[in-house]
Specification:
With 424 residues, the chain is α/β, with parallel strands linked by helices. It has helices at 24-35, 61-64, 77-83, 142-155, 168-179, 195-198, 200-212, 313-329, 397-401, 404-409, 413-419, and strands spanning 16-20, 41-46, 86-89, 93-97, 102-105, 110-112, 115-118, 122-124, 136-137, 160-164, 183-187, 216-218, 223-228, 237-241, 246-249, 251-254, 258-260, 276-278, 283-285, 288-290, 295-301, 304-308, 342-347, 350-356, 363-369, 378-384, 387-394. Helix content is 24%, strand content 30%. A hairpin with an 8-residue loop joins strand 25 and strand 26 (378-384). It is globular and about 60 Å long.
Length: 424
């Protein structure tokens, strides 16, 4: 018997949908399904015991203690009840049969559906050999954040924190820890922090924020090992660098990227390649859509075609909504997902915002301020093949948003410079 929608048709409004992943992308998919008139069964499976919550505050307000953990909730219990979600928390999905649209949970429960939303996100990479060390932390979940905060408070004033990785998460954690009075050292394996995300020039400018706030940033610094000390006094950990130097640490935080959670999809029939490969409308198969950090979709934008995976909060939110709308419309009629990517970071009281998708090889043009300005504020645009590819602003939010319509239109750099004439 052919299941509803198996040939790419629309989702039955009174059918059944299983959402695997109870974070932002999954929640937005559930909300969009109900808003789109879906009245059927809606099951959401999440491996954490917490109701859906927001991740960006974890490395900032929650870690700093200025927000209680419950303030990070994305939705309250009453609203979840109104959505009519059968929430299965503390359970993992163990397998998917994409053709039959059956999800098998780790307890053996089999959930059949007319549509499946895959939104299991990603997990932090860890330093090899540190998995069992209690004082080596990552920041991805609410439990991770609370664990790290406890370790810092237990160590007391002057807690020695070594952060491995100067990407956005590592830099945010470093800034928060510095604000808590910790003695912070950041180790970055690359010569320039954030170079893969924003390029060498801008990465160097953003990296300078650490030095301005008393944080020791060391670039081209590779970690050979982390050792737990048996001595009753002194630092409980030692971070050994490749050059032989040893740094004492009360807490070690690892921020070296993430790995898509796709292992449970082996044998599912989906195409897995550094994420789940999807078409331009986020479909991985008929009746199966993806959202969030594990989604690698075909992005057709401004005449360019890329198979791309982007790990941003705003994009996960938009993907969840778009994926749900695609299910409702059916694969044959679903609209392509063509966003203007947006992400932000807050460090040392400075807000860094990016529109578009910069690449490390793009040309950078500073339109306002200067990369080495004392106040750290500037606006820069990125160019690729003569076209605007991204815009970045440090504490200049209004100026940044002026570039959104230009990015949508695939405008030239000359058109971007008419918004803010280049300095110098």
């Amino acid at each position: 018997m052919t299941r509803a929608g198996a040939s790419g048709g629309p989702l039955p409004r009174d059918g059944a949908v299983v959402i695997v992943g109870a974070a932002l992308g999954g929640l937005r998919a559930a909300q969009a399904l109900r808003e789109g008139g879906f009245t059927g069964s809606l099951i959401m499976v999440g491996d954490e015991v917490h109701h859906p919550y927001d991740r960006p505050p974890l490395s900032k307000q929650v870690l700093a203690g200025t927000w209680p953990p419950e303030r990070a909730a994305l939705v309250d219990r009453q609203r979840l009840g109104e959505l009519g979600i059968d929430l299965r928390l503390g359970q993992r999905a163990g397998a998917l049969d994409a053709e039959a649209r059956r999800v098998t949970l780790d307890d053996g429960t089999v959930l059949g559906a007319d549509g499946v939303v895959v939104a299991t996100g990603a997990r932090p990479r860890r330093l090899r050999g540190t998995e069992a060390l209690h004082g080596v932390a990552v920041v991805r979940t609410l439990d991770d954040c609370e664990h790290l905060r406890r370790r810092i408070l237990e160590a007391g004033p002057g807690c020695r924190v070594v952060v491995v990785g100067a990407g956005f998460i590592g830099s945010e954690v470093a800034a928060t820890c510095a604000g808590l009075g910790c003695d912070v050292t950041v180790l970055e394996a690359l010569p320039t922090p954030l170079e893969p995300a924003v390029g060498e020039l801008v990465g160097a400018a953003l990296g300078a924020l650490h030095a301005r706030h008393g944080v020791d940033l060391r670039t081209s610094a590779s970690v050979a090992a982390v050792h737990e000390r048996a001595a009753p006094s002194g630092a409980p950990y030692e971070v050994e660098l490749a050059d032989g130097e040893v740094l004492p640490a009360d807490v070690v935080v690892v921020g070296i990227g993430v790995v898509p959670n796709t292992e449970w999809l082996e044998g599912s029939g989906l195409d897995i390649a550094d994420g789940v490969v999807c078409d331009e409308a986020l479909f991985a198969a008929d009746g199966v859509v993806c959202a969030g950090d594990l989604c690698r979709w075909t992005w057709r934008h401004a005449g360019d075609v890329q198979s791309i995976r982007i790990e941003h909060w705003e994009l996960a939110s938009q993907m969840g909504t778009a994926a749900a709308r695609g299910l409702l419309a059916g694969r044959a009629e679903a609209e392509p997902f063509d966003p203007v990517p947006y992400f932000w970071s807050e460090q040392y009281g400075v807000r860094i915002q990016v529109l578009g998708h910069p690449e490390r090889t793009d040309e950078v043009v500073v339109l306002d301020g200067a990369l080495d300005a004392e106040d750290g504020r500037f606006v820069a645009v990125y160019a690729r093949d003569g076209r605007l590819s991204a815009a970045l602003a440090v504490s200049r939010p209004r100026q940044l948003m002026a570039f959104r319509p230009l990015l949508v239109a695939g405008a030239s750099v000359a058109e971007a410079m008419e918004v803010l004439p280049a300095k110098g």
